Amino acid sequence: MTAITGREALLLVNPVSGSGRGLKLWPETASALRAVGFTLTVTITESLDDATAQARQAEPGNLVAVLGGDGFLGAAAAGARDSGAVILPLAGGRGNDTVRRLGLPLNPVTTVRALTTLDVKALDLGLINGRAYFGVANVGFDGLANEYGNNARLYLGPFVYLYGGLKAILNWRNVTFTVTTDDRPTTFSGWFVAVGNVGQYGGGLRICPEAKADDGLLDVVSLGRAGVLSMIATFLRSYRGTHLKQRSISFDRGSRVTITANKPLNVYADGEMVCALPASVEVVPLAVKVLVPPSSCALGATHPA
Fold first, then answer.
1. What is the helix (H) or strand (E) element at residue 128, kind and residue range?
2. Is the CB of residue 169 less than 8 Å from the CB of residue 233?
3. What is the value of pTM for the model shown?
4. CA dist., res. 234 & res. 242, Å (int)
């Protein structure tokens, strides 16, 4: 393990993600961090903005352990980008897609105990209208499904977004999107547009299965005009990442993406509602230092940490 230069660590806890998962897990996680030699400060955050501010105040090279969901991780990463702190992603949400895709354990204590097996890597950070995210920015049918999933009253774990998707089918009508990737515009009627960095969201949907978090590029996957059964098949196949060759799927890759539509739609990033369209998405290459397994399938480029 390299590039952690201090023994002081900050544990950021989201008290609301995963129906309070972080609040349940932080005491044992804190004990594990102290057991491996860190002098620890624990902060129960008040908001995503608070997580950004706390990580921004960390000393360069110090550890910031982030116990929350995907959106919370992106918020903390935005602060660590400025401070030079090293992020340790810990599964404290419902889907925990970035943690899963990076190849980290779903048990935060197990992750902490395995610190010596992890490497510090510089990862890209996505920005949507200036707001940071790690995994996927999405708009369209899946955004509506995400909205229903987040509002679910029952705790369904990673299946919450499947529930949201089924409910969204009853309320969706095709819209016309215009997507411009590095000055290449395309207009189509369809279901969704997803812009991936790590590339996984929705409790295991590998919607951008070829995305690498260290290549300085964003993967753009969209589903055009298709029937309901074809749309459902797309999402089911995306659990294995085998949907890119499916009819009506389009794929592109670039560093800047703009999205507009002929109807009002909200844009989501890592499960959090960010803004209404239009949206501008860009990537900041190698912006954040993150502890990951050396064999992580989310990594592709060879570069110094």
1. strand 119-128
2. no
3. 0.89
4. 9
